[in-house]
Structure formats: structure tokens, C-alpha cells
Specification:
The protein has 532 residues and is mainly α. The protein has 3 domains: 6-207, no CATH class; 209-286 and 429-532, no CATH class; 303-425, no CATH class. It has 21 helices and no strands. The longest helix has 49 residues, at 82-130. The protein starts with 5 loop residues before the first helix and ends in a 17-residue tail after the last helix. Mean pLDDT is 86; it is low at 520-525.
């Protein structure tokens, strides 16, 4: 049940109505029931996966928390001398670490099974075929990929790690914890939930607020516009070109790749806007996941603005543990001893980044194209880190002024090409060889005439749809530019008179109804990031 279906709109309306009818302290039960129904409608076969993950992390966190509490009671009561206290802490640490490792093996094992089984089978098939042994076709093997498994797995892993690190106490009520895991607005595409920021909002109950409801509906409408009017229309052109890339060349591939970059942004951020909007109606604030990433002036900045919750998750639960690990500490020590302090600092900066970007590439997909995507982005960020001082010296020699608008515009365009345009080719094709073939075709012909001979209207979008796409992209650009300049659009609309406000609402609603890609004969595409 996608957010863009009429069934979901009915489901959401009923959920919100019941939520505000129920007593304040029982409203979380409505959210739990609604989230359970939403997940069950995606497929009953997915339920065992999410229940195993939820129960494993809930129970393990409870055991770890009780161990910590018991140790605190023993040390606070003065029952132990210094040696006994040290021994008790070591014993508690070992037991808690074992519980943590076993739990991570279970939940990450489930995630790995769903994401990597196909690629492992494919590699085994190739090996067996090379030995002349007949194998079962990959298409004959069915692997269940549960809805939102990456999102709820990462959220639960973050939860148990925070409990292990004593950042907060474990949840005692399993059903309240299950609501944190299953909460339906963010289960499709996030943002990644942090227990300490979301759980209490889900269970404390919220009163109805007309202003908050208006803001939430506005955000949802903007999300629907980006998804149905922009992303799904651009997908038609992108799929048409990329599906027949061998026969395409020059600017046709350039335009399709540009459209693909806009498509994935409007699709992904559109879904998050819907999730944040419907949550805001309920009085629940989800974390922001995008902050105008295409206005970034460096690749590093781009990844601080794109999929913010994923970047923060990797920073807190992967980058920092790797950075603080004994392995990295030994590498730093060896580098300092052999090459000096600067080499040690470089090792400290680079090694965690390598681990994070390999993990980021694998999270986005299991093919070699996604590995190259991760290496590309990580390589640019690492080189920028290592060569930062040299870049500064070069700009001084060239007399480039950082605050000049022309230079800033160049930086934005350069970042878009490096972070959104070039890597996109490797993630949209079915193999690395296809990606290189597309890049080769992109530069094989300078067919500027496609802008004038109407051939662009033969890739699934006629003249009206093509130019509607261009106008829609311009609208998204203008809104993003206003937000970049600090203009609070929803607050500005709220301050206008009622005629203007409702004119904006009606314009938004009817633009989605009239220009959205849906209805009989249209196979609505799933949200892009659901596959992750």
C-alpha cells in the first residue's frame, strides 16, 4: 500500500480520526494497530523477519540494561572493594559484549540474507558453470525481501548500541518498542529513526492542532507533487533511454542522466515529505532528511545534505567506532613512527572514511556498479581531505575569491556533476560494462540537433509532457532556492489572508490531480529507495 494510492489516503484518514478520538494516553495503541495493518498489507510473509529483529533487539537490550543496572547497584552500594569492582566491571562488559555480538549477528544476518543471497548464488552459478556443472536458474530461486528491512534494521541496531553504550535505558514495554520499529510513515524510505528522538513522541499522545495539521497537509501536498508530477513523469523518459542505451548517443543520454538525478531526488525527498507531513498532523516530528543537496558546493557538503539520517547513522555507529578502534589506533601509531605526525592524522581521517563508503555503496546495492559508486564518492571526499591545503594554495595563486558568486556557481555545478550526474550512470545500468558503454555513447556524438528536431518527444513523453516536466523542475528549483535563502514558505503562506491560502491549497491539489502520473493504464512505480 503505497502513499500514492487512494487506499492509503483512506487508511490515513481513518487512522488520524481514530487517533484524535481515543484518550490521550492510549493513542499510541492506534498507531501500533495502524502500523501493524500497514505492514501486514505489504505481505504476511514479511512479518517473521520484522518480529525476529524486534524481539531480538528488545530482549537483548533489556538484558544488557539489567546487567548495567545490577553493576551500578553493586558499585554504588559500596559492597565491593577496588579489585572486586574491577572484576565485576570486566565480567559485566564481557557478558554485555557477547549479548550484543550475538544480536548483531542475528539482525544483520537477516539483512545480509535478503540483500546478498542473489549475488552469492550468482557467483556460485558462474563458478559451477565454468566447471561444466549444470545449475538452477537464478530466476527460479525466490528470496524474500521484507518491506523496509534496511530502515528498521539500522534503527534497531542503533537502539541496542545506544543501550550498550549507556546513552539511555532500555524500553520495558515490548509493544511500545514494536511501534518504534513499525511506525508506518517512515517504514518505506525513512528517515532512519533514533529511539531517543522518536519513541517518546509516539507514546506520549498529542492533541489536535489546526496549525500543525495545515503545515502537515502542505508538506504532504508538496511531497505528492514531487513524486507524482515530477519524479514519475521523468521516470518514463529515463527508463525509455536507459532501457535502450545501446541505440542512444550524445545529448539524449546526457538529458536522461540529468533527469535521473532530478527523478531520484524528487522521488526520495517526496516520500520523506509525505512521511514528515502525515507525522506532523499527528504531532510527531520526524528528522529532516534533505537540505537542498543540489546547492552544495562540495561533494562532502552534498552528503551532509542528502539522506541526512543515513549519513548521521554511519557517522555515529560506524565511523566513530572504527575511528576509536584499536586497529586504527595501531595504524596511526605505525604511520606516525614511520612517516611522521601528518601521516598519522591522514590515517585517522582516511581509514574510517574508506570503511563508511564501502558500507554505503553496499547498502545502496550489491552490484559492482554500486561498489564503484561508493569508491567514487568516497575517493573524492578522501582526496579533498588530504589535498585541502593544496587546493587553498591553488585558489590563492589563481586569485580566486571564495565569496564571488561566479565561483560559488561553478562549485555548485561541479558538485552536481561529480556527486549526482556521473555516479548515476553506474547505479542505473545493469552492469559495469553497460555503464562504461553509456559513458562512451554519451561522448560519441555531438547531436545538439535533438533540441530542435523534436526527437526528444519520442522517449515516452510527448511535447506537452516533456515541457511540463521542465516547468515542474523549475518549480522545484524555485522552492529549493527560497528555502536555501532561509524563506519559511509554509509560515509565509500561513500569514496570508484566507483567500490566498486556499487559492494555494486548491492550486496544489488540482495540479496533482490534473498533472500527476496515475490512473487506469498507468503502472505507478514504487518509491526508488524502497529497494534499499
Amino acid at each position: 500500500m503505497l502513499f500514492t494510492t487512494i487506499q492509503f489516503i483512506i487508511f490515513l484518514t481513518i487512522t488520524i480520526t481514530l487517533y484524535f478520538i481515543f484518550p490521550l494516553n492510549k493513542r499510541w495503541i492506534i498507531l501500533l494497530i495502524a502500523s501493524g495493518i500497514f505492514y501486514c498489507m505489504a505481505g504476511l510473509k514479511f512479518i517473521p523477519f520484522v518480529l525476529i529483529t524486534s524481539f531480538a533487539t528488545y530482549y537483548s537490550a533489556l538484558l544488557i540494561d539489567r546487567r548495567h543496572g545490577k553493576l551500578n547497584d553493586m558499585t554504588a552500594g559500596g559492597e565491593l572493594d577496588e579489585e572486586q569492582e574491577k572484576e565485576a566491571k570486566e565480567k559485566c562488559g564481557k557478558i554485555c559484549k557477547r549479548i550484543l555480538v550475538i544480536t548483531l549477528l542475528i539482525v544483520l544476518g537477516l539483512l545480509s540474507y535478503t540483500k546478498f543471497t542473489h549475488i552469492i548464488i550468482d557467483l556460485l552459478q558462474r563458478a559451477m558453470t565454468s566447471l561444466g556443472v549444470r545449475t538452477v536458474q537464478l530466476s527460479e530461486i525466490s528470496v524474500i525481501i521484507p518491506l523496509g528491512i534496511s530502515y528498521y534494521t539500522f534503527s534497531t541496531v542503533g537502539y541496542i548500541l545506544d543501550v550498550y553504550w549507556k546513552k539511555y535505558r532500555a524500553e520495558r514495554n515490548f509493544f511500545k518498542y514494536l511501534l518504534f520499529v513499525l511506525y508506518f510513515p517512515h517504514i518505506l524510505q525513512g528517515p532512519f529513526a533514533r529511539y531517543n528522538r522518536l519513541a517518546h513522541q509516539l507514546t506520549e499522545g498529542h492533541r489536535f492542532s489546526y496549525e500543525r495539521a495545515c503545515f502537515g497537509i502542505q508538506l504532504m501536498l508538496w511531497g505528492y507533487f514531487k513524486k507524482l508530477v515530477v519524479a514519475d513523469r521523468l521516470a518514463v523518459f529515463v527508463n525509455s533511454v536507459y532501457g535502450d542505451w545501446e541505440n542512444q548517443a550524445g545529448f539524449v543520454i546526457v538529458i536522461a542522466t540529468f533527469f535521473a538525478a532530478i527523478q531520484i531526488y524528487t522521488d526520495f525527498s517526496g516520500c520523506v515529505d509525505m512521511a514528515r507531513g502525515m507525522s506532523q498532523i499527528l504531532g510527531i516530528e520526524l528528522d529532516m532528511n534533505f537540505r537542498q543537496p543540489y546547492f552544495s558546493r562540495s561533494v562532502e557538503e552534498y552528503w551532509r545534505r542528502w539522506h541526512i539520517s543515513l549519513g548521521n547513522w554511519f557517522k555515529d555507529y560506524l565511523y566513530m567506532p572504527v575511528f576509536a578502534s584499536k586497529f586504527v589506533a595501531n595504524l596511526i601509531k605505525k604511520a606516525k613512527g614511520k612517516y611522521g605526525n601528518k601521516a598519522g592524522r591522514n590515517v585517522a581521517a582516511v581509514v574510517p572514511l574508506i570503511v563508511v563508503w564501502i558500507a554505503t555503496g553496499v547498502w545502496h546495492g550489491t552490484g559492482w556498479g554500486h561498489v564503484i559508486w561508493g569508491i567514487w564518492n568516497g575517493g573524492i571526499i578522501i582526496s579533498s581531505t588530504l589535498l585541502k591545503n593544496r587546493y587553498v594554495d591553488l585558489r590563492k595563486r589563481l586569485c580566486i575569491k571564495e565569496k564571488k558568486r561566479e565561483w560559488q556557481l561553478f562549485q555548485v555545478m561541479r558538485t552536481f556533476i561529480l556527486a549526482a550526474f556521473i555516479p548515476k550512470v553506474f547505479t542505473l545500468t545493469d552492469s559495469v560494462s553497460s555503464a562504461w558503454g553509456m559513458i562512451r555513447n554519451m561522448f560519441s556524438e555531438f547531436n545538439v540537433w535533438v533540441f530542435f528536431d523534436q526527437s526528444l518527444y519520442t522517449y515516452g513523453l510527448d511535447r506537452q509532457d516533456f515541457w511540463l516536466s521542465m516547468i515542474s523542475i523549475f518549480i522545484v528549483f524555485c522552492v529549493s532556492l527560497m528555502k536555501e535563502k532561509g524563506i519559511q514558505i509554509r509560515e509565509s503562506i500561513a500569514r496570508k489572508n484566507i483567500v490566498f491560502r486556499w487559492a494555494v491549497y486548491y492550486a496544489a491539489i488540482f495540479s496533482i490531480i490534473i498533472f500527476g502520473m496515475y490512473g487506469p493504464g498507468y503502472d505507478a512505480s514504487n518509491f526508488v529507495y524502497m529497494q534499499f
